[in-house]
Each structure stands twice: as structure tokens, then as C-alpha cells.
Amino acid sequence: MVKHILIADDDPHICEVITFALQQANMRVTQANDGQQALQKFTQSQPDLIILDIGMPELDGIEVCKNIRKTSDIPILFLSSRDDEIDRIIGLEIGADDYVTKPFSPRELVARVNAILKRTQAKPTKNDDRLNHGNLSIWPEQARIEYNNSPVELTSKEFAILNALILHPQKLFSRDDILTHAYQDNINVSDRTIDSHIRHIRSKFVALGCNDIIITMHGMGYKLGLCR
Description:
single chain; alpha/beta; Rossmann fold; Arc Repressor Mutant, subunit A; 2 domains; five-stranded parallel sheet; four-stranded antiparallel sheet; 20% strand; globular
């Protein structure tokens, strides 16, 4: 099935470069030139993934992502002209799946898009493929999670982390262990980014009444809680 990608960037040249690279990879592309237009085209076209520039007029990428995350867990890849760790952490905390700094290689960007789509693409599975731990249930092939029979919406990175923890519920994970599972493309990610993912996962489960989804072993790492 041809994947549909929405590109939101106010630089026409960047839009054309990305569009050409994605079309060469057999993907369909819709373009938006500002934040408001990005929200409109997201609603109208229902893409499979959004490439979202942070510094756009009308609404910046951060605000667009916040609006989309109110109703959808569609994969989002941020573009930024600044290699600023604060921007990266904010983007990941509000639900971005990945972050690329300009200037970038179009081939690398396509590879990142393919990797995100592969991680987030749901596949039909049987119920006996479910993994259970306390009140937590995960269907790895579907990238589906429930707590107390309530669905939990996670980004692809958050899902990869939680999936690794439930596969090894007794294991104490270092940040490097988590990095290996969440960032298989070996990009450079700081400890603060990993901590941000953990904090975001916890907040989503706290909202459902689970206060011990991930336990911090200070100075050592993380492990899965009892999930009761």
C-alpha cells in the first residue's frame, strides 16, 4: 500500500526536496506551507505520517503537534533549523516520534520515515500474541497497549521502550539498554531525551490510575513496575 505523507514547511525549496525524495521512494505527498494549513490538510487528507517543521508562521510546529495529539497518535517527525536539545526534548515530550535537524540528507530522512512507519504499522494478530503484566496488556505486532482494558496511546519510541520492559519484566534497564531498543537507527540521543520518554509514559499511565508503570532505580536504571 502506498503511504501518504504530509509535509508542513514554509520553505518551498525544502518541501520540493522532501517531496521528490519521498516520491522516489513510492510515497504520496501532500504539502502545507504554514501551521494552520497543516492542521487543515491533516484533517482533510488523513496521512500516514507528518513531517513537521518547528519554525512556521501562523502556528509553529510545536502548537500543531499539540493540536494533533488531542485526537490522533499519527507518527510525527519534526524538522528544525536549530540543533537545540531543549527543542528536541519539548518535541519528544509532546509526542513527536523523531527529530531531524536542518540541513539534512534526503536519503536519511526517507530512511527515518520508513523506520517510523515500520514501527507504527499495525498488523492483525491473534489474541494469544498478547503479553500481560499485572493490568497491562501489549500486542507487539499491532503496537497496541491497554491498561485495565483501556487503550493507551503512545508514540513509537514510547511503545518500543515499554515493549522492551514487558518482554523482560525482571530486567533492570540502563539508559543504554533503552537507547538500543528505542533508537535502532543509532542516532545520537542524550540521557535527557530517554528520561523525557520515561516521564511521558508515566504521565499517560498516571492518568489511567497506574502510578508504578516504570520504576526508577536511582543510579542504576529502570524496570517495569507491578502495574496493579
